[in-house]
Amino acid sequence: MIFKVLVFAVVAYIVYAMFFKKNREKNVKDNNGEYIEDTMDECPTCGTYISKSEAILSNGKYYCSEKCLNK
Ligand SMILES: [Zn+2]
User: Fold this and answer.
1) Rounded mean pLDDT of 19-28?
2) Residues 34 and 47 occupy one common structural domain
């Protein structure tokens, strides 16, 4: 009888832990999405919004491509 209760407790804990982990991963993903959105900037040549991680930085401005940079 005690063994059954123990097994149930372990299973319940595993299910809870998996559910909690899933939620945490989702939150991290959402935060990353916001982070990428926060670092979007407008290309001064063509007006396209590009993420700063992919943009070319020149004179403190973010360009979407070398073509816009050299214009
Ligand atoms: Zn551009």
Assistant:
1) 68
2) no
